[in-house]
Each structure stands twice: as C-alpha cells, then as structure tokens.
Amino acid sequence: MGRDLHKKTFDDGTNTKLNIFQSYLFEWIPVFLKTNYFNEINIIDAFSGPGHDLLGNKGSPLIIMDAFKSFRDHITDTRVNVYFNEFNKNKFQRLRNEIEIFSKQNDDFMNKVSFNLTCLDFNDFFTSIKPNLNKNIPNFLFLDQNGIKFITKDIFKYLVNLEKTDFLFYISSSYLRRFGDTPEFSRYLNIPLDELKEKPFHEIHLQIVDFFQREIPPSNSNDYWLYPFSIKKGGNVFGLVFGSRNILAADKFLKVAWGISPKNGNANFDIEQDEQKSIENSNIPLFPSLHKRNKVQAFQDTVSKRILSGEIKNNINLYVETLRSGHLPKHSREVLINLKKEGRIFYEKNAPAVSYDAYRDKNIKLWKVL
Ligand SMILES: C[S@@+](CC[C@H](N)C(=O)[O-])C[C@H]1O[C@@H](n2cnc3c(N)ncnc32)[C@H](O)[C@@H]1O
Hints:
The protein is of the alpha/beta class. The chain folds into two domains: about 5-260, Rossmann fold (3-Layer(aba) Sandwich); about 275-370, no CATH class. It is built from 17 helices and nine strands. It has helices at about 10-35, 60-70, 90-105, 105-110, 120-135, 155-160, 175-180, 185, 195, 205-215, 220, 245-260, 275-285, 295-310, 315-325, 330-340, 355-360; strands spanning about 40-45, 80-85, 115-120, 140-145, 165-170, 225-235, 235-245, 345, 370. The strands form two sheets. It has a seven-stranded mixed β-sheet, sandwiched between helices. α6 (about 155-160) links the parallel β4 and β5. It is globular and about 65 Å long. The termini are far apart. About 35% of the residues are buried. The structure holds S-adenosylmethionine.
C-alpha cells in the first residue's frame, strides 16, 4: 500500500503536509521557549524517514533540526528532547548520517538539544516513549504513518488523554472507504463502511475525523480541539488530523491551515466546491439574492443570525464559537463590523476584539442588538 515517497521527489500533497507541519512547528516552539513555565519539552517524529527525498528536499527530521536551529538563541534553560524513529534500517542509517553531518556543522547548538534516534516498529517505539510523554510537560507528536494502521483508536485515545500534548497525524483516508470492510483494515479502525459511504468521496477525510471526534472521552470532548486537513493526490484523499486540548494551539493551527489554504482552511483542493458556486453565481449577476454562499460567507451568515438572536452574546463567546467552527477570528470580526455598519448592532468605538488575548485576559466586550 502506498509507494515509498523517499524513492522519488516529494509530490504536491507531501509538500502541503510538510508545510503544515513546519508552519505549526514554528508556532509551537516559541510558545514554550519564550516563557519560563516549562523547563522541558518533547518533540516526537515517530515515522521520520531518512531526512529528505531523492532530490534533497527536506523531510520532517531535517525540518525539526532547522526549526530548533532558528530558535537556538531562545533555548536557554529549557531542556529540548527530540525523538526520531524510523523502522526501515537503511533509512534509519541515512538519517543517522544526516544528523551526524548536521551536528558537526552546528556544534554550537547541539548541546542545547537532546536528539534520540531509534530504529523500532512504531508500537515498540510508542511503548518506549510513554513514560516521557506522561511527565506533564509539553509534547508535540508528528505521526506521519503510511496507510492507516498505526494510529488506532487506542493510540488516539491515549494521545487525547495526555496533558499539554498536541499531535498531527497523517492517514490514508480513502483507503478506508475502499478497503474498510476487509479484515486487514477493520482490525485497526473498524469504522462501518456504510457510514463512510453516506457522504461524497471527497469528504471522506472529514468523516474519518468525525469518527475520531466521537472517540474522545466525554470528560474531554467539550474542551478538546480536533481539526481535519484533507489532501488530495490523484484519485485518493489523504489527510492530517490535528489535536490539542489547548485553545491557543487550536487558534495557531487554524492560522496555519487557512494560511496554506486561504479559501477553506481545511483542504488542498476545493472541498466546498466554492469555485463551482462562483461560476454559477456569475451566470446570474442580476440576482444576488439567489447567489450560493461560499464557505466563509455561509459561516458569517450563521454567526450573524446567532448574534442577532442573542445566542452569541459577547466577544469571548464569539471567539470560542469561531474556533469550534474551524474559522478565523477575523471572519467573525468582519461580521461585527458589518452588523454595526448596517445599524443592526451597536458598540462603542472599534469592533470588540475576537482574539486569544481577549479570551486569556477575560476582556469581555458586549454589543447591543438594535
Ligand atoms: C510517510 S513516511 C514518513 C516521511 C517523513 N515524515 C518525511 O518527512 O520524510 C513513513 C515512514 O514510516 C516508516 N515505517 C514503515 N513502517 C514502520 C513501522 N512499523 N514503524 C515505524 N516506521 C515505519 C517508513 O519506512 C517511512 O519512512
């Protein structure tokens, strides 16, 4: 299943995946290095690969090394533990060589980061790092599996129960729809095939993430943040799943995802079929009331109604609801500005901040529905 991506050059889908990983890493690292709350952090790359593709484009382990190199001046008292694991012996050996070369070229900062390399099957590796994951310190795991079989329900539940842990895992979602009822596949995730066929094929990754969402224990589900990012390659749909218990992490992940995909923030293709809607709208320019709404507009319509009905009462409420819907705070802020312009709500001066800072500082701002 799946061809070896290190025997060729990374394709667009792989580049999107690695761009999301890299961008989130650049958001995650400084949060912990620039504060004094934590004296230790863990980053885990459980399916590392050899370090690059056939042309020398960097894979996840070298992206991690480069990221810590960029932040090296901020690594003062924090102990940084990096875990690389690769099962294939040949790739593992190549990765070890890469790290040796990197270490020689960067000996000024190698003493600030502890690199741990293993050549284990994922399940043995995961068992071996559990004690390190359980230390109540920040963890970020990148689980870039081939296929579907390593991130089982049990692994997922284990991850969502960990404190201060963010993860990004990859899954070949459409394989589940194609082969989900074969014993080999159902052994790992056991999602009823009928359920997976209820929605169009291109939405398969969203359905897989819904399935994982339902696996989050009820005690956690209200304050857990889980997001999909679908990646189409040829006739297949793959995807990333991001998870965290922390609202700032959710905010940062959405910023990355919308940065990579400004139209929908959750796919490297037109998953909402917004282009088709826009073509249809352009055929009836004189009837704007009949125009189909794109993803952002549809969200803004809903938010607008909820504000006017009094269901969403203040900026903090609005911020949380915005992130829950997988949208950016700026999408909701635009709604407040427009409603004021239309004379349907009133607030003094500028639009109330819909932001993490306002949420953190409990800086509640109200508006009046007119
Ligand atoms: C999708 S690739 C990872 C690519 C890597 N993140 C990169 O950026 O280059 C998956 C990797 O998992 C490795 N792998 C396969 N079976 C494994 C297992 N049982 N345990 C751990 N790693 C395994 C493969 O050799 C392959 O290098």
